[in-house]
Design a protein that fits this description.
The structure is a homodimer. By secondary structure, chain A is of the alpha/beta class. Chain A is built from 12 helices and 13 strands. In chain A, strand 11 and strand 12 form a beta hairpin. In chain A, helix 10 packs across helix 12.
Chain lengths: 300, 300
């Protein structure tokens, strides 16, 4: 079934120990869409400026990502991020952020998009996320991502969002910040108490944890030897999780775990090259083979 | 089959956010022995001072740990460590160390102990570890642990040890220090190139990785809600791994993974209370139930 994502579309300039790229296509909605496109038809909602190369849109369309919800703002410039990864590359140092047209992003869903059953609200202000959610009139499953900035500045609005969504993605530091709990297992349960049916805590190179009323489930990251650029790992992980969930007829408890495994595998591909480059070179067969290897690895 | 451990026996004073204990029984050989005793008969080699309470030895003997190799040094004092854990408790702050009788520890195996087929050389100087190894004349499997101090100060001796042992345990920071590799997967392969048949990298609350000629295998830590005191987690993990390996008739590749799962489960029990307290309250049935739950968790 179709999957809608609302989030950022960016031009990223990234430096890692493996090299430098300038103005590469990025942003949460892009990484999410590309990853999810291996599982289900994706509908992307975002905004760019007049400087956005049309080749990027064509490339997404070739992956069957419906970009009719990607607005080009007249006279505006695309959101730009410049960052650097050093050492173990576990955290990015942000060198420059230019919100540009993203600063006033106020998405309006077309009737077709508003009917999408699966919805992912990528990182953005909880107020904006709630506004999108209210437009998704045929939603079956809505999952949001968030970040420390919104926990610090819009906590009440975020609480309201958490009462309305089915699932939440956040990273380990954000889970601790949101709940005041240092122990991640306790933090996970506390986030679950705030409303969602499931919570996924992302731990980067250390994997991810799933909390739901069926219990807690922990997955290691895929053992990747060659991390070239971690940008987009979290969003492509979410894309794999939601993409897989959208592609199966129902969601019994076990499906969430399998979905997380798909997300883990997709994220492990993403980090093997800059930006979207590695995801462009993969296919469903390779993804399934890596999933099978991962599944065998965890079997004893 | 019997399992020999050579390592420290300590009186630990520990402060964590959950409380304080003074002069609790600890040390690498103790945590290892106690954990392994749920799987196989254990023989302990260590040294203490005249201040060592005989009740501790009795308690170990009741767990079928043969303490005939525990030397009481006349006029000496037992090794003492005082440490503090704060925040996420991932690392201990050492407040005091008194090596005392451990400073001149020079183990001499009795003929019975020298015939033990399975040997664990807990953290100690590589020179001392090699000396013990040379006495273990009927060894079938020898596994060592090490730490940053020996990597910094006795690297050549450590290299010699690595050519003689079957397996090595070390933590993530030590693996990086030993190999100069930031990426842990690459670091693991590089340690394997130094000689052992398998290498286990411990990542604390993030689990552990196994490297062998059969490939790489990553396991998450058990999702523990109540971490009271992390002291001894790594040594009881090793005790679970080696204890299980000693208890099965042969070591096909898959057994190492199952052994790591047992180590993971034992370590998850250790941290639920101070010192050995939680391990004292467990039994093989509880360990096996937790293993089963963990195995199911990783199945999708």
């Amino acid at each position: 079934m179709p999957l809608l994502v609302v989030g950022s579309v960016a031009l990223d300039s990234v430096e890692t120990p493996h090299g430098i790229v300038e103005d590469a296509l990025g942003g949460s909605a892009v990484f999410f869409s590309y990853a999810a496109s291996y599982f289900t038809p994706v509908r992307l909602v975002g905004v760019v400026g007049e400087d956005f190369p049309s080749a990027h849109r064509d490339m997404l369309e070739r992956r069957k990502v419906d970009t009719s919800g990607l607005i080009i703002e007249k006279g505006g410039s695309t959101f730009r991020w410049r960052g650097k990864y050093e050492g173990d590359m576990s955290t990015a140092e942000t060198l420059e952020v230019h919100l540009n047209v993203l600063g006033t992003f106020d998405p309006d869903l077309s009737p077709k998009f508003a009917d999408t059953p699966f919805v992912f609200l990528a990182n953005g202000s909880p107020a904006m996320q709630r506004k999108v959610l209210s437009q998704a009139r045929k939603r079956q499953l809505v999952v949001a991502d968030t970040m420390n900035f919104w926990i610090e500045t819009q906590r009440e609005e975020l609480y309201a969002l958490l009462r309305e969504v089915d699932g939440l993605f956040l990273n380990d530091g954000e889970a601790r910040m949101l709940t005041g709990e240092i122990n991640l297992v306790r933090a996970g349960w506390k986030v679950l108490d705030l409303g969602p049916r499931f919570v996924i805590i992302k731990k980067g190179e250390h994997g991810a944890m799933l909390f739901s009323h069926d219990g807690v489930f922990v997955m290691p990251a895929f053992p990747t030897e060659e991390v070239v650029d971690p940008t987009g790992a979290g969003d492509s992980f979410a894309g794999g999780v939601l993409g897989y969930l959208s592609s199966v007829p129902d969601q019994p408890p076990g499906q969430l775990r399998r979905a997380m495994a798909y997300g883990t595998v997709i994220a492990s591909l993403t980090v093997e090259d800059f930006g979207l480059e590695r995801l462009k070179r993969t296919n469903r067969k390779e993804i399934d083979e890596r999933l099978h290897w991962y599944q065998q690895m965890l079997h004893f």
